[in-house]
């Protein structure tokens, strides 16, 4: 009885294993077949003509950008009737998980959108392909801004084409400033306000009775996504601290430097002793007049136009360069498009990527999204980019832009920085302890890559 | 001869039994046991989620996890959550069940009302509670301010954030547990209460001497299910706080999710999953022993 049960177990398990292993063999078979397929396709683009090709493309959901994509996809499909682009938008906070699960399952889209700092971890694992040959052929790489190229290059190779560049500047409620008689900040990027100047104004603007916060230093508050560390890192760099050693091997001695301690102590005071910054950022707080000094990207203008048309630039609010401390620095880096190594049609995928991010596509992209361009030609094509308010973004970007670290350990860094600022800001935790914890987390992440 | 025939019959019987078991077992093997074995294997490797290569790590992952402060914290958060939810939720549900067991006009209305939260999707409930809890504009704080009480910052105060999650979870689950208790209560013969009443037992005596002992089997089921669900809590945390503020609601499952999908460190996450699996297993076994009854009523 017992024996037969055991036998049965063995048989069933064996069947289960066999079924699964044959499945995984199939998977390997198709993946090993894909390079040869691309080889046969690459000699001539015309070979693919006539047969219908479908490219899948995933991107996180953001309304103005989705509109730009739809426009560009329509013109692309018109020009390439044999290629169909299957465009899928995924909710922002699920995007990274979904794309990673798809990569792990060996079934990713042909083209994936990625945020600049995650590029290295994908490239390091061979999940995406270098685009240098394509860029050399018809990508107009010389036209791209230098910090953009830097942010998308890992181990000397460029792995993604940028949709746009990004940085954040200071927004302030002009009416509130005038009410309190506070002088308005300069619009010259070389004369940015210091932390102390901003804090000083924030203290005067703060009005707990009316639920008004003086200074919101992050666009999305303590969010659980990359948006938080994006703006928080600037504080560290401005104080003169670094996150990693120049060779990228450790955070020890850099993230726990006296400069970093100073930045964190200042951050802690904003939320706990001065109480000028909101621990919970209410929805649309700045646009509703609940935050006096805010920070946001160029996409904020189109958001305001759509949702708060009566809250006007120049009347109700204005923008100024980001604040500074020892140094003036604004975090840069935005989203780009990469081609996955599992794609069976990398050439066609590049055609699409280049259509969207190339010289002409980039102009369409700017017109719809009003986001900071990654190409010089786009800057030259639109006069408004040289005028207020976009000139503040453009000048701050070219003079004081600082990309996030390009390292495969970036997921650990992003998480460590996010928790560091939460521990100190929300938790009112000890600065030294929180920094030590962040250093350990980052160094553990780096050590893992060496194995 | 007779014995042989019995033996042959037995064999035939057991063969038929196996045939009935095979389909279910095959599914379990493919979808549960095989992935588990695979996960065990991964836990001994340096395994990146999106990488095609992995290297053998031996006990490295296990050693590192046992000295990992954030894993320890997440364990404590899970147990703290369970230690509060288990008694409070069970007591509330039992109370509700006793209330709505009485037959009076409109009892169906109350049963429905108490059960409605169960029908609401956990994701939707979490999103709504996030709005309710907002420090400045949330309904909860508007009401508190209206009656002159200080506001409660469930979403940004690390000291009380877990209580916010606990309230949400109890609100959602109590209706379900109430229905289970209701079924248990209805199984207790009315004659026992009548006899006790004749003997002069007070309502409190009747509750402790009749209701509770006769509910033991139901209670066992409720306690074990609640414990397992509470330890594995994830969805409301992912949606309302994503482990924050300052990591104060990061439970074990959230830790595993973060490690596997954000840090892409599958091997390490698999170790955490396995250690946690054994912890839950041990707790369930202990609970089963404790609730084992020798007397069947």
Automatic annotation (TrEMBL), chain A:
Residues 1-18 form the signal peptide. InterPro entries: SBP. The keyword Signal applies. Keywords: Signal, Transport. The keyword Transport applies. Residues 22-49 are annotated as: Disordered. It holds the Pfam family SBP_bac_1. Belongs to the bacterial solute-binding protein 1 family. This is Sugar ABC transporter substrate-binding protein. It comes from Cohnella silvisoli.
TrEMBL record, chain B:
The keyword Transmembrane helix applies. It comes from the Bacteria. SUPFAM superfamilies: MalF N-terminal region-like, MetI-like. The keyword Membrane applies. InterPro entries: MetI-like, MetI-like_sf, UgpAE/MalFG_permease. It is found in: Cell membrane. This is Sugar ABC transporter permease.
